[in-house]
Amino acid sequence: MRAYFDKLLNSSPQNKPLPLIYPLIISLSSGAVFSLALAPFYWWWLAILSPALLYACLHQRTPKQAFAIGLSYGFGLWFVGAFWLYTSIHVYGDTNAVLSVLMIALMALLMGLFTAVQTWVYRRFFPETPLTFAPLWVLFEWSKTWVFTGFPWLFAGYAFTERFLDGYAPLFGVFAVSFVAILLACALVEILRKRIFWLIPSALLLLGAWAVAQIQFVHPKAEKPLSVSLIQGNIPQDLKWLTEYQIKTLQIYANLSRTEWGRDVIVWPESSIPLFQTDIQEFLDMMDQQGKKTGTAWVTGIPYWDLKESQQQGHPMFYNSMMALGSDASGLYKKQRLVPFGEYIPLSGLLGWVLPALQNDPSMSGFSRGASDQKPFQIKGRKLSAAICYEVAYPNLTRRNALNSDFLVTVSNDAWFTGTAGPLQHLQMVQMRAKENGRWFIRATNTGVTAFIDHNGHIVKQAPIDQEAVLRGDLPAMQGQTWYTRFSDWPILGFSLFLLILGWIYRPKLVDVSFKSRR
Asked: Where in this chain does the entry annotate a coiled-coil region (predicted)?
């Protein structure tokens, strides 16, 4: 066994690389176990070991072989790491089990192409060194936030939320945490190859994580904390949108809120009102009056039909939105990042000639995208910046919304993924966004995880999952800005690009030699 791993780590002209089947199996397995580093398992060390094995498998491989190894790793990563989609596809999407698994496999294959292209580029254009592998990893993680609208999940940095390396988050964001984690993973391989000098940068990075964690970028404002109540209705997903259950849903949330009037803010989750505001104006007016009577602001998720925009555009404009009513409260937020096939149909314009119903059926055309320059809610003299569900997975979107805010508030409905790791991975992202921006995050969900998260990304309180619950907290408004809030992802992306440029400059000397030696 020792000789086997020695051959994996130290292939050379005298010690030929292992047959391709072995690194393919190792990379598939190491990708598959990566998600165990994230919630709910928190085996953070796998976020070091998993990419370390991928790095070792790429040693002296051709670009084509590297592509296959990367695809194998990426498939394992996404098939296991995002298997929580099975519940929404099979249980709530009413798709048979075999087809559901095949759909997840197809998704894993497509998302695995990110790692495949990353490893191909690495072996085709750059020298074998942690200083090119780590920046490429970061740039490809970043690309997952925007390519094909993005699926920004399973980032290495999330494994270190609340542990070890998270001090880098308020400096340069989750991608900086990923960069350090991957550099440490590669350095481990180099140390096992008896390149002991990699102990020095590894020690410096760990010492730096401890040092930057001592920096306080923000501090509480000298004003009364905001008393907040979060309402978790626990409405089953298969009942939520049934016409006959809509009034029952409103009754559940209204009853749970009955004891909370008089506090500063009551927050209901995403689409807790399963009707457009045009269909339920009388109920909204009643809640608004109750809030003003008791001195309470009321924030709720609701599908919103913008009649003015619809008239201007000539077709219905629907939004997944949040609104604030009640005492000393105002604001409407329209979701900016929509879930493909869940909230809109991609390329529906191009598909119109094939499926003309897409143009005229509101249930098929789905939601519209909200503007990028929306103002925060004004509540009790504080500014609350909003994010709806999936949006908190986008670091820069949350950062942009957090500018000039006192709190961050997100509402979600993770009932689609009940009983899986999905909701807990989602919560972990909210923690990272709080840490990056130095703001308390108020999170109200339908089935869980409803929680208060402080400016350091720590969960202060959380409600039990899959139960009706009311969660109360008193939250201080924060002032000041983290470096990440000021400068976004550009410092870490720029630094990564700089390292790759240096790698490209030295490529002829370092890469071509390795290929010639194999001939």
From this structure: none
